[in-house]
Design goal:
Order of helices and strands: HEEH
Number of strands: 2
Helix content: 40-55%
Number of helices: 2
Shape: elongated
Structural class: mainly alpha
């Protein structure tokens, strides 16, 4: 099995993949991106989900509930 070494590119790619998936459901997290401060730590770079309004939070919860029910 290949060893996975987190890189800044992995965090960026993951954030973009999530942005695309959310967009497919009409959801936008304006602050979604790579957490630059996480590069100072010894752990993998983090994806910052950021803030959203209540309507977006409800839409995200709805999409997650539907996905869980379909699984």
């Amino acid at each position: 099995m290949a060893v996975h070494h987190p890189t800044p590119g992995n965090a960026h790619d993951s954030a973009e993949e999530l942005r695309t998936a959310l967009k497919e459901h009409g959801i936008t997290l304006p602050s979604l991106g790579v957490d630059l401060t996480s590069f100072a730590g010894s752990y993998a770079p983090l994806v910052a989900l950021g803030n959203c309004n209540a309507a977006t939070a409800r839409k995200l919860a709805e999409v997650l509930r539907k996905a869980a029910a379909a699984a």
